[in-house]
Amino acid sequence: MATIEATGISFALTDEQKALRGLAHDFAANEIRPKEREYDERMQHPADVVAKAHALGLMNLHVPEEYGGPGLSVFDGQSQISATPFKEHRKEIGPDQLKKLEAIKKDLLDGKITVLDS
After folding, report:
1. b/e map of 55-80 (b: 16 or more CB within 10 Å)?
2. 36-45 confidence digits (pLDDT tens)
3. Residue of 28, 54, 73, 118 with fewest CB within 10 Å of its CB?
4. Cα–Cα distance for residue pair 17/31, rounded to 1 Å
5. pTM of the entire structure?
6. What's the CATH architecture for 15-92?
7. CA 56 to CA 70: how far, in whole Å?
């Protein structure tokens, strides 16, 4: 019987992709998670965290090398994003945002806010 070698697409991560994913995971664990509640409660942009992510090469992974970026593929970028659970990806809101939404809803129902047609 003849042996046929299967060929196709491999979804196994390369060593470089595993290293990037590990870096993103560690960054999330050490830099994002410890501060996320504080930033949510203050409703403050985490500029210091974003700056650190830029310095480590974890931001704008899709930017081509000729423009100063790493020029990674969509798959490489997605691999990194899936290892970095930012709040925006989880669709969560904090208690302060919920209170504001409830206040807006009340004002809307009480007729204090007018919805404009687009």
Report:
1. eeebeebeeeeeeeebebeeebbebb
2. 889 988 989 9
3. 118
4. 21
5. 0.58
6. Orthogonal Bundle (1.10)
7. 11
